[in-house]
Amino acid sequence: MSESLARDAAVDDAPAGTARRRTTKVAVVGAGAVGSTMAYAALMRGAARTVALYDINKAKVEAEALDLGHGIQFMPMAEVVGSDDIAVCADADVVMVTAGAKQKPGQTRIDLAENTIALVRSMLPSLVEVAPDAVFVMVTNPVDIVTYAALKVSGLPPARLFGSGTVLDSSRLRYLVAHHTGVAVQNVHAYIAGEHGDTEFPLWTSASIGGVPLLEWRGSRSAGPLTPEVRESMTREVIDSAYRIIEGKGATNYAVALAGSRIIEAVLNDERRVLPVSSLLEDYHGIGDVCLSVPTVVGRGGAQRLLEVPLSDGELASLRHSADALRTVARRFGL
Q1: Is position 100 annotated in a ligand binding site?
Q2: For residue 283, which of 323, 321, 255 has the smallest C-alpha distance?
């Protein structure tokens, strides 16, 4: 698509002689499995008026944009552009960074850190230059370390650059709880906190089902109570699910794309929705100088406010353990 069409995509049609207002634009960096699916999810949900795909692979990114564009008539009205020129991200309201090394079967997210941090260091300054007012959301794994590195490189305030964190992990947890209890997943309120990785853990103390504290859920004829053994099994399944998916199909893309589109909507619509995104902690329950996930109010200003949810002694210990593990990795890479 021409640059003029791309610019036109950033404004609404308006009658002659009237002011044209700027509309929303999302830039997705990386046209791989996650990035292209995230662009698709954002378009299907009508999250933004313009979706721009950027990737250094010219043939790939142009093909993905063309394929998406051919389906525009079946989606909420929008424009999609794709290019290997970073200028395609210009003036974006939200930049979703999905580019990075692909996680292979058996690899942990931390194993991906070195190459991805190098990519962030080389790419992020140019992204900030073309989209200086954007909210940046890091999706690339290991997302907590990548987010911390991106903050150091970009100089952006922590509210305007954060990671997708455990939004997807929390969705996985709610799915398992809903399946066990036989209630709609929309009525399950529970969060995974900490690292988006092996040290993450559920916030059972503050979880609820339809207003009933989860730890007080007594079960039913068709489903037993949420015993410690059941909860431990759910926790393990949440942690291991990405490895299972990667082993079976090579990548996770659908659910993470939907989680990403939900973050986009929370920002662009200024929803002030509570989401467990990964942002810089500063004296959060005494923990600081690390990026990890806790329930956070997300709106047009980005990660606007971290909620100091009540934690049991065990949950606080788990949060500190997760923070210590992430700091150790960050120091290993000179952060």
Answers
A1: yes
A2: 323
